[in-house]
Amino acid sequence: MNVQSPKPAPQTALKKPSRQEAEAAVRTLLRWGGEDPEREGLIDTPARVVRSYEEFFRGYAEDPAAILARTFEEIEGYDEMVVLRDIRIESHCEHHMVPIIGRAHVGYLPNTRVVGISKLARVVDAYAHRFQIQEKLTAQIANTINDVLQPRGVAVVIEASHQCMSTRGVHKPGSSMVTSRMLGAFRDDASTRREFLAMISSRACTTPES
Ligand SMILES: [Zn+2]
Questions:
Q1: Ligand 1 center to residue 176 CA distance, Å?
Q2: Which of 28, 136, 138, 178 has the largest count of CB atoms under 10 Å?
Q3: DSSP classification of residue 169
Q4: Can you list the alpha helix ranges (DSSP code H) found in the chain?
């Protein structure tokens, strides 16, 4: 008899492979590249790559909304823009699985509460340490801050270079992509948006370093 069980959420529906399976996949890619995975210099490489992946993609284990949960209300009526700029971005492109390196600028207009600024950087990291495209990364950061803090507005600008463009494909090192998401007052009020862009502009037009 066929009993219908509720569909698990997409994240849990996927069975995570074992560490041994992941290491075997790295050995397959080494052979695909033309190597002998058993030679001395490569013998520990699969284990190292899998450990690196744990670091690169640790964002899947983090809950960005929970990071913003603790807020401060004793802000003496502060209602001006809060901007954290030049937050280093280290992500991976979901199409080629190669690095996206750049920086993010995050601003919001507090309503009645603010968060510790390191929390904004941690939200950026939690989403960056996943397989990404820059457009989605930008939107996820802005939407989460908007949903959790319910500020009067949120602005996120990301500028990044994509190694899938610089080291392969069209081979265009030095190019960077800029994306932005403006919500609330940053979207509706041109002077608010201008103020934010002026605050980040001294940095926004330079190439991300290393
Ligand atoms: Zn790519």
A1: 13
A2: 138
A3: T
A4: 10-13, 19-33, 45-56, 64-67, 117-128, 134-149, 163-166, 185-188, 190-204
Confidence of residue 209 (pLDDT cuts 50, 70, 90): very low
Tell me, yes or no, if 150 is annotated catalytic.
no
- For ligand 1, the distance from its centroid to the CA atom of residue 117, given in whole angstroms, is 30
Contact assessment for residue 112 and residue 151, using Cβ atoms and an 8 Å cutoff: no
- Give me the sign of the Cα torsion angle 185, 190, 192, 197: positive
CA gap 201, 164 in Å, rounded: 26
DSSP letters for 41-98? GGTTHHHHHHHHHHHHTGGGG--HHHHT---B---TT--S-EEEEEEEEEEEETTT--
Q: Residue 30 corresponds to which tokens in the numbers above?
A: 């080494």
Question: Quick one: pLDDT at residue 204?
Answer: 47
Question: Is the pTM here over 0.85, yes or no?
Answer: yes
The number of residues in the chain equals 210
Distance CA 113, CA 15 (A): 39
9-13, 24-28, 59-63, 95-99: which range is least confident on average? 9-13
Cβ contact 129:59 at 8 Å = yes
C-alpha distances in Å from residue 163, one per residue of 60, 140, 169, 203, 206: 22, 22, 9, 21, 17
Please determine, for residue 8, whether its predicted confidence score (pLDDT) is greater than 80. no
Ligand 1 centroid–CA 95 distance in Å is 5
